[in-house]
Amino acid sequence: MPLHRIFIAVDITDRQVVANLVKFIGDIVATGADVKPVEEENLHVTIRFIGEVDEETVSRVCEIVKSLKQQAFTVHVTGVGAFPSVEKPRVVWAGVSEGSSELGKIHEFYEGLLRKMGLQPDREEFIPHITLARVRSGRRISELTRLIVAARNMDFGVFRADKVVLKESFLTPRGPIYRDVCEVELGK
Q1: How are strands ordered across the β-sheet holding 163-170?
Q2: 3-state secondary structure of 20
Q3: What is the three-class DSSP state of 9?
């Protein structure tokens, strides 16, 4: 049976926020650091990465996704940082100020239900963010670090989180391709 690589996410619904993020991704690439930038159509806030599961599990996770009762809310995308640290970046991200508590509550809701279902707990502490680029090597890391520090308070804008989506990720040599599996609309 084929496995499906899935995750729960919130899409960025404002074109200007996406454009601002894409412009900054260009700045990351311009440092000359060895990075894999995230494609424009793949920018999102991950609520919970689940991993590779069978078809039946995908259906059960869809039911869990659709069970969320939450009002739509505002997400303010601000600041730039890196995991595990700015000095040793592996992932460069844009942060979330307003909306982070709502995103955290959604993560907790899903985490509890996914654990009851028997899925492994999330390995990392939930920090709402939008992945912008993955660092592949140490080439020109000091230039990248300087950019991250300079952008730590950058304002990318605001968008309305009005749905949560279960996505499937297909890994290709050119990067992942995402497909929406199911979604839940958030209340008005």
Answers
A1: 44-53, 4-11, 163-170, 177-185
A2: helix
A3: strand
Please compute, for residue 174, the number of CA atoms within 13 A of its CA located in the half-sphere on the CB side. 4
Q: Which residues are catalytic?
A: 44, 129
CATH number, domain of 56, equals: 3.90.1140.10
- The Cα–Cα gap between 101 and 113 comes to 19
Residue span of the structural domain in which 38 resides: 4-185
Per the structure block, which two tokens stand in for 164?
A: 């949560």
Asked if residue 47 lies in contact with residue 8, where contact means CB atoms within 8 angstroms, the answer is yes
> From first to last of its 188 residues, what are the pLDDT tens digits of the chain?
789 999 999 999 999 999 999 999 999 999 999 999 999 999 999 999 999 999 999 999 999 999 999 999 999 999 999 999 999 999 999 999 999 999 999 999 999 999 999 998 888 899 999 999 999 999 999 999 999 999 999 999 999 999 999 999 999 888 899 999 999 999 97
For 155, other C-beta atoms within 10 Å of its C-beta total 12
Cβ neighbours around 173 below 10 Å, total: 4
d(CA 161, CA 127): 17
Three-state DSSP at 85 gives: coil
Number of domains comprising the chain? 1
Q: How far apart are the C-alpha atoms of 183 and 166, rounded to whole Å?
A: 6
